[in-house]
Amino acid sequence: MVGETVALNPGRLVFAALVGLALLLALIIKFKIQAMVSILIGAITIGLLAGMPFENIVTAVNDGIGNTLKGIALLVGLGSMFGAILEVSGGAQTLAVSMVKWFGDKKAAWALGITGLVIAMPVFFDAGLIILIPLAFSLAKRTKRSSLFYVIPLLAGLAVGHAFIRPRPVLFWWPPC
After folding, report:
1. 87 DSSP assignment
2. Do residues 49 and 19 make contact, with C-beta atoms less than 8 angstroms apart?
C-alpha cells in the first residue's frame, strides 16, 4: 500500500545506493543518456534494490523532486535536453552563421550578440559559450580582427539572456522579486 512504512536493511540500502550510482554513471558516461532521464532510472533502481514497493518508489521520487526543486525540475531537465539537442544537431552553429551572413562581416559582432541572446534561452551559459566560441574565433581569424571584438558581444548576449529572461535552465533557482 502507498504510504506504508517498510523497515529497510542498512546493508541493503548501501548496496542499492552503490549500484544506483554505478548505473547512473554508466548511463550518462557510457550510453550518453540524458542526465535527467538517467537520474530517474537510477532513483527507481535504488528503490527497487532497497526493497521498496513500486508505488512507494514513485511517491518518493515525486516528493523528492517536488520538495527539492519546487516545480523547476521539469524546466531544468527539458532545458538541458533541448540545449544538448541544439548542440548536437548543429542548430546553434547554423543560427549563428545565418545571422552573420545576414548582418555581414562588418556587423558580425551584433549578429553574435543577438545569437548569444537567443541561444541563452534554452541552454546553460557555459554550454552556449562552448557551442558558439569557435565561431567567434573563426570570424576573428577570417576578418583579421581581435577575437575580443567578437567574443565580448557574444558573452554580452549570453549574459543578458541569462540575467533577464525567465524561466530558463539555471543551476540554482530563486523566485523573482
Report:
1. H
2. yes
- Distance between CA atoms of 66 and 71, rounded to whole angstroms? 6
CA separation (Å) from 37 to 43, 76, 139, 168? 10, 12, 37, 19
**Residues 173, 114: Cα–Cα separation, whole Å:** 25
76 grid coordinates? 531544468
Say what the pTM is: 0.50
5 has pLDDT over 70:
no
**Average pLDDT over every residue of 20-26:** 95
Q: How many helices (H) and strands (E) does the chain have?
A: 8, 0
What does the alpha-carbon distance between residue 39 and residue 21 come to, in Å, rounded to a whole number? 9
**Distances in whole angstroms, Cα of residue 154 to Cα of each of 24, 76, 147:** 34, 23, 11
How many Cα atoms sit within 13 Å of 45 on the Cβ side? 18
Residue ranges covered by each domain of the chain: 10-71, 81-164
For residue 41, give the amino acid letter: I
Q: How many other C-beta atoms lie within 10 A of the C-beta of residue 2?
A: 9
Identity at 152, one-letter amino acid code: I
